[in-house]
Amino acid sequence: MSDEGSFYQRDRSWHPPAFTPQYKTSILRSPQYPLLSLGNTASEMTGPVFGHDEIGPLDNDLIRNFAKTGDPIGQRIIVYGRVLDENARPVPGALLEFWQANAGGRYRHKKETYLAPIDPNFGGCGRTITDGEGRYWFRTIKPGAYPWPNGVNDWRPAHIHFSVFGHAFAQRLITQMYFDGDPMIWQCPIVQTIPDKAAIEQLVAALDRSVTLPMDALAHKFDIVLRGRRSTLFENRMEGN
Amino acid sequence: MVQSLRRLKESPSQTAGPYVHIGATPNWVEITGVWKEDLGLVLVGPETKGERIILKGRVFDGSGIPLKDALVEIWQADSDGLYNSPQEKRGKADPHFTGWGRQPTDGTTGEYRFETIKPGRVPYPDGRLMAPHITFWIVARGINIGLHTRMYFGDEEAANAECPVLARIEHKVRVPTLIASRPEENGMPTYTFDIHLQGEKETVFFDI
Ligand SMILES: [Fe+2]
Asked: Looking at the complex, does the CB of residue A137 fall below 8 Å from at least one CB of chain B?
């Protein structure tokens, strides 16, 4: 028995569909033809890897990696967790990239027009690579909620965006992390693109007081699950097909 | 009750949003000094083997307007058809070629552009050779889950005709949505691969 098989098929009912009219931008950006189901080939079962040497010492410290005159404004937090696959095995060496708004809900981006101020000490980006047990952690400030043009009064709940590379391009994933206890999660049209409540809850990080740094930072635990590989009990190589 | 299979569910996708560049290409949106160089900008160096090519194109929405806030990633084999990945079991790929690239679409023109090499052929699981191709992954505001597709080469008619993946496309009229034409630009072979998210020319996207 080996774990060299292809990846479990993606459960598309767990993910948001492409066409979600309550999130207006999806209307013109959603393919309408069915996706072509393609069993994995080498092109999907391989993927880029990134070395720990490509990552700088402050890349996972959003409190310090852009600071000019002092620490950014906002509640200091640690986000930590593990990257696992669907077989609950850790994914070591996974590159995680994260980006977020500042404490006032403002992104540092040339197209951002929200009136909340830029924080001169906050860039809003970071990255890290999971260790041998699939663990990661970074330090940042808690992002603020912000309004966005969709309905006339739509707001995003506080969230951190994550981009994840596993070991194969088939595992490539971008998602968002939310914060435990935030009522705005359940009012957000982008969150609601996910049809299943349990799937949404999978994106809500838990406050973890056992990891809190006393007199310094709260901690939130956020595990990420990537696609897992099938076990190949009897090889089926489709010879002669 | 029966025994549980106890598998975890994949984390559900959420849109990359309009500010994906902050995380992926911060220097491109003038967040400088956090890290020196955005990942994935450079695929080839002087020692990379294979024919140099330019890949470019735009990503169109259902109204025919190019996306100016998309992020395009590519993943491809080296000139011998090997992937630079620990998961590659068939041999050792060119160490001077990462095979992975990432570019935002331009904020004014909507164009993405990669300098890379033409990949070799990679076998399908049954051993037949697929035609040379480059895997694309597209994310943007309004795209709820990243879209996978492939670019094939217009000057590879014979290989394309026998590619087992292209043969899987039931509606043959849609095959050309995956094939890039090859005009020369300043003496450099330049492939144009436009991606249509929706509409008459909708690109074939894959569930891989
Ligand atoms: Fe956001």
From this structure: no
Q: State the ipTM, two decimals.
A: 0.96
Enumerate the residues of chain B whose CB falls inside 8 A of the CB of residue A143: none
CA A232 from centroid of its chain's CA atoms: 30
Handedness of CA B130, B134, B140, B146 (dihedral sign): positive
Q: 3-class SS at A48?
A: coil
How many other C-beta atoms are found inside a 10 Å radius of the C-beta of residue A38?
Answer: 18
- Beta-bridge partners for A122: none
Tell me which H or E stretch contains B185. Answer: strand B184-185
CA pair distance B141, B17, nearest whole angstrom: 4
| CA gap A170, A167 in Å, rounded | 9
Nearest CA in chain A to B139: A174
Contact B100, A168 (CB under 8 A): no
Q: State the distance from the centre of ligand 1 to the C-alpha of A169, rounded, in angstroms.
A: 24
Q: In A, which residues are within 8 Å of B12 by CB distance?
A: 14-16, 175, 194, 196, 199-200, 202-203
pTM, entire model: 0.96
Cβ pair A174:B139 closer than 8 A: yes
The residues, ordered by sequence, that sit 6+ positions from B55 with a Cβ below 8 Å of its Cβ are B74, B112, B113, B114, B116, B134, B151, B180, B190, B191, B193
Mark the residues whose beta carbon lies below 5 A from ion ligand 1: B 17
pLDDT in tens, A134-150: 999 999 999 999 999 99
Give the Å distance between the CA of B45 and the centre of ligand 1.
35
